[in-house]
């Protein structure tokens, strides 16, 4: 069907089924008073406001900031777990090293006490005991070196642990701040959405159901725009300028005929700014 013939069918034959197909659905030709059609533009405006609120909810800067923060925090938390494990292992290792040194020292002290008390009378036993004391002293020295090495490792690990804990606490604090800011923004947007929905509900009660259903189907399949005004010679839905012949057909259409844009299929609402 030629575009002018199609527009004529849309504008002048409200009792004839529309031949235009949108997503395999045949849309009926509708009638509505001009004032009602213009109210459809108010509905479109409210729906766009709801879309904007939904977009703002998804694109809050806090969302991205939290995503980045939590990624960094996850790394630090993992490093902190590893640091805690290392500190715990070294603490147990130091405790064992301390215990080993104490045991050898106690054994040496007992041997020294035996010598000093005069309990050992045999020269051979005395020589053996003194030799053992020398061995114990060397053993103590080696154990103390190992003990010192563990202590130094533990101190270094505790420094790393403290730094990571400080960073983790800072991340947690920042996370709380961002979540509070996000929740405050979401609350404000939810209040805006509720107010818009209240207006939308009131407006829907004024509009005929068939017109609303057609508008909603068109809106779903046309990027959120189901109805658009004719401003001058241009459909503000697709921004295409209508041909003079199409404008003449629109001028000839009944005032209550619900028109559709030939280019985009959206409901085309005549306004005082229309050239037709």
From TrEMBL:
Domain CT398-like coiled coil hairpin: 43-223
Residues spanning the signal sequence: none
UniProt source species: Kribbella antibiotica
Keyword Coiled coil included in the entry's annotation: yes
Transmembrane segments: none
Domain (C4-type zinc ribbon): residue spans on this chain: 234-268
Chain spans, region Disordered: 1-21
Coiled-coil intervals: 87-206
Pfam families (UniProt xref): CT398_CC, Zn_ribbon_9
Protein name: Uncharacterized protein
Family matches, as PANTHER family: PHOSPHOLIPASE C-BETA-2-RELATED, SCAVENGER RECEPTOR CLASS A MEMBER 3
Keywords from the named record: Coiled coil
